Amino acid sequence: AGCCHGALDKMYETLELLQRRHNVRPDLLLCCGDFQAVRNEADLCCMAVPAKYRHMQTFYRYYSGEKKAPVLTVFIGGNHEASNHLQELPYGGWVAPNIYYLGYAGVVRFRGVRIGGISGIFKSHDYRKGHFECPPYNQQTIRSAYHVRNIEVFKLKQLKRPIDIFMSHDWPRSIYHYGNKNQLLKMKSFFRQEVESNTLGSPAASELLQHLKPTYWFSAHLHVKFAAFMQHQTNSKEELPKATKFLALDKCLPHRDFLQIIDVEHDPSAGDSLEYDAEWIAVLKATNSLVNVTQSSWNMPENNGLHAKWDYSVTEEAIKEVLEELNHDLKIPCNFTLTAACYDPNKPQKQVKPVHTINPQTTEFCAQFGLTDINARIQQAKEEGSVRGEYEDEEEEEEMDSTGSAEEPSEYNTDNSGLSSFNPDEIMLDEEGGDEDLSTCSVDPSPDHPPDFSASFSDIRIMPDSMAVSSDDAMDSTNEELEKSGVSKQGEEKSLTERPLKRIGGNENGNSGIKKIKRRNQAIYAAEDEDKTE
Predict the structure, then answer these.
(1) What is the mean predicted confidence (pLDDT) over 391-411?
(2) How far is CA 6 from CA 37, 161, 327, 443, 444, in A?
């Protein structure tokens, strides 16, 4: 599923419709961010959206136990979330019975399928900071709380075993060059400037795509359906070629393609339980010393002569130790716990303030595997006075960088990892959010209509290590044969002329670039308003 925006009733009812229409029963539902696990009015105040988009929606019914998700649901965070709620579970956990959050980054298993994901969106000016934010948020931290950090990318890059499915909220940068780009720009013409300059999407996600090479990669965020198919370069003649099927889905609105049923090879004899991934747990243990809760910028260890250790990948022996710790029982315990009062439509609370909560699930997880409880560390730092007051010190810098135009050096060697990316939604927030009172919340129901569905993976391209892209737009024409045959005929590789990416400075286009992005953002929200009035 694409962006859910808290409309769980609508999402599950649409899934039920699909089941009847196609005579299938999905085993697992994956949601690619903007899930909006809003429990109450305080959670609404921690969601970075203009007031007119703050709706209670229906998650609270699943949190309270009034309803239960009809299918096991796993999701990542986006840029419109109840950040205070998700922050309680930095390593992942249950936000409601049968609904599991992957954490800042995480890997789990279901019926033998290995599923990874990273929450949030990329912003260069926050990328190298630690997870320092905590409620109550201010106008800066309510946004930076959902920005991807380099430590999460570093952890994921330590993985060696194959990944079947990976999820990110924003798209990997350059992915649009491996699908039907002309059709994308026809639907979203305001993407053109960023597509042509190769600045649309997340360079951090591109790093992970190049490293992990998952079989499937799912994203959302841009509110448009788009499919691509990439073949990765091999490092040696002995290595088998790998390919990734990419699919971005629309948001949960009437007549939108926000749900897609996909048959993934799995172990039919395996149980229905969600399981820990032993290698990922071992990586968390190996990288625990790198946990940082300050807002100072820092780079991950790399082989540059400045670090005694830079390889934190784990051995088979370390993975075996994790399995022995768990007595080879990888089942994730169903230990969901209520940590906040649930919204009562009969007793609305207008003036509420969020508090920083330490979730028992996180406490138990950290104790079991000897990990640092990030929220406990933040609380300790606040009590010691090392974090309190630092937000105000950088308000001017944060305000200047709010468009994402700041360019920070990166620990990565690939050319595009330091590029800044524009986020249409967040610029809109800067325009409309202003100094808005974060404690003012609104509750409003939303309509419910089933969407139409269609998908195909088209236009195979080689993804080089440099993430070079084709300069031949003729390659983006629709391949009707591939679309008709689906994935089965994707092996027909296309030749293309490649050119290396250029580093795009934040000020290269002057103010005109910012105005262009604002117009694109206005178009996105205008389309959303039209859908809501249909």
Answers:
(1) 36
(2) 6, 33, 37, 12, 12
Start-end of H helices in 121-259: 141-144, 150-156, 181-187, 192-196, 203-212
Tokens of 286: 């190996």
Summarize the confidence of residues 488-495 as an average pLDDT. Answer: 35
Enumerate residues 6+ apart whose C-beta is below 8 A from 325. 368, 369
* Phi and psi torsions of 462, nearest 5°: -80, 135
Are 455 and 247 contacting, i.e. CB atoms less than 8 angstroms apart? yes
Q: What is the pLDDT of residue 452?
A: 34
What single-letter amino acid sits at 111? R
Nearest to 46 by CA among 297, 354, 379, 403: 354
Give the span between the Cα atoms of 46 and 38, in whole angstroms: 9
Which amino acid appears at position 306 of this protein?
Answer: L
- Position 264 scores a pLDDT of 93
Would you state the structure tokens that stand for residue 297, as one six-digit string?
A: 């910028």
Return d(Cα 322, Cα 463) in angstroms, integer.
Answer: 35
Whole-angstrom Cα distance, residue 301 to residue 312? Answer: 9
Q: What is the mean pLDDT of the chain?
A: 78
DSSP reduced 3-state for 108: strand
* Measured distance CA(160)–CA(213) in Å, rounded: 11
Higher pLDDT, 472 or 174: 174
> End-to-end alpha-carbon separation of the chain, Å?
22
Query: Residue 357 corresponds to which tokens in the numbers above?
Result: 């909560």
CB atoms closer than 10 angstroms to residue 484? 9
- Residue 368 neighbours by CB distance under 10 Å: 13
Q: Quote the pTM value.
A: 0.78
User: Exposure of 103 by Cβ count < 10 A (0-12 exposed, 13-18 middle, 19+ buried)?
Assistant: buried
What is the DSSP-derived secondary structure letter of residue 450? Answer: P
Q: Hey, what are 468's tokens? A: 């070079």
61-84 tens-digit pLDDT: 999 999 999 999 999 999 999 999
Distance CA 392, CA 398 (A): 10
- CB 146, CB 49: distance < 8 Å: no
Strand pairing report for 242-248 and 165-168: unpaired
Retrieve residue 279's tokens: 């290698």
Predicted confidence (pLDDT) per residue in 418-444, tens digit: 333 343 433 354 433 334 445 444 444
476-489 residue pLDDT tens: 333 333 333 333 33
Contact of 260 with 453, CB cutoff 8 Å: yes
Q: Are 202 and 122 in contact (CB under 8 A)?
A: yes
Do 459 and 229 form a contact (C-beta atoms < 8 A)? yes
The pLDDT of residue 528 is above 80: no
Q: In the Cβ-directed half-sphere of 184, how many Cα atoms lie within 13 Å?
A: 29
Answer whether 5's CB lies under 8 Å from 80's CB.
yes
Q: Which two tokens stand for residue 70?
A: 């009809």
